[in-house]
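Tutorial, part two.
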Amino acid sequence: MTVSEAGQHEVDCKEVLAEVYFYLDAECASARRDIIKQHLAECSPCLAEYGIEQDVRALVHRCCSNEIAPQEVKARLRAKLAKLTDLGSSPDL
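Running the prediction step on this input gives:
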């Protein structure tokens, strides 16, 4: 794999991981859902990350299945997670 191919792959992975919550919650269009599903099937690092998230979601679902988070809470959590993801990819860390 060339450097440009590796860079492109990283961008694709970042996009997929940024949208994996929408994928898990079935909140994305079916065409985008298919693209994410295909990427997860072919990319073992993303699949590993997705697997961890899926386990966490399953645990939360078992423990809190009668609770429904308000949309504003979901939006705040997604925003905070996005910031954490951005910080993790910062060269200053």
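The helical segments are 3-24, 30-42, 44-64, 71-88. In part three we will examine how such features are distributed along the chain.
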